[in-house]
Amino acid sequence: MNERFIVFEGGEGSGKSTVAAAVVDRLRADGLDVVHTREPGGTTAGEAVRGLLHLQLAPWAEAFAFLVARAQVVAEVIRPALERGTAVICDRYEASFLAYQGYGRGLDVDSLRTANEIATGGLRPGLTVFLDLDPAVGLARKRGEAESIRIGLETLEFHNRVRQGYLSLMAGAPPGSWVTLDAAESVGKVVEAASSAVRAALGR
Ligand code: TYD
Q1: Are 6 and 82 contacting, i.e. CB atoms less than 8 angstroms apart?
Q2: CA–CA distance, 70 with 111 (Å, rounded to integer)
């Protein structure tokens, strides 16, 4: 576990990326050096993986595609930054994998954990900030937006399972390692709460 490594998680339309970007802006305005990255993506290889994710992949093929992106962003971006002493904020990480591929797709969660451990060398975030939202609301917020990855087009039932997955992960998370925020609140309020949680985790 690395306490300078912070992950933002949430379902479709939870506002996760907007909130993470606003928190990063605030930290930088305070003079803190922060690397902001995202999954799948954040590297040239990760962006290539996004291309694969347009295809109708078998569940384990999809899982391994996400692991290619994760192994690369850990090796190329996240570990080097943490080793320099820089804080890293990443949109999505292992919890997305367990919630979407495990609870959503129905793959065995313990096998996914093992595969993820191999891909990341066991790197875990010090804090996960989870933006919780009823998927019916989240999907309605996203209606009309171009969806870049097929998985975002899954059924409401799929996204309900993903949410239950996140809530199970939250229940099993070590104390202090997971903060859940109500993403139905205004963006301003969520940004405020997320900033306080992240600042506390970074000792700022
Ligand atoms: P993306 O277009 O990057 O948007 P956002 O993160 O804002 O939702 O979509 C990424 C999609 O990939 C999203 O539907 C969640 C899914 N995903 C997985 O299924 N497993 C994973 O391990 C990761 C990182 C993402």
Answers
A1: no
A2: 16
Structural fold of domain 2-201: Rossmann fold (3.40.50)
What is the CA angle 154-155-157, rounded to 5?
A: 125
Q: How far is CA 11 from the centre of its chain?
A: 9
Ligand 1 in reach of 86 Cβ (< 6 A): no
Could you count the other beta carbons within 10 Å of the beta carbon of residue 190?
A: 25
152 lines ligand 1 (CB under 6 A): yes
Q: What pLDDT was estimated at residue 35?
A: 98
185 Cα: distance to centroid of ligand 1 (angstroms): 22
Residue 147 has a pLDDT of 66
Q: Find out whether the peptide bond into 40 is cis, omega within 30 degrees of 0.
A: yes
39 CB within 6 A, ligand 1: yes
pLDDT tens digit string along 47-99?
A: 999 999 999 999 999 999 999 999 999 999 999 999 999 999 999 999 999 99
* Structural domain spans, the chain: 2-201
Question: How far apart (Å, rounded) are the C-alpha atoms in residues 89 and 37?
Answer: 6
Q: From the CB of 130, is ligand 1 less than 6 Å away?
A: no
Nearest to 91 by CA among 51, 150, 46: 46
CA-to-CA distance for 161 and 159, rounded, in angstroms?
5
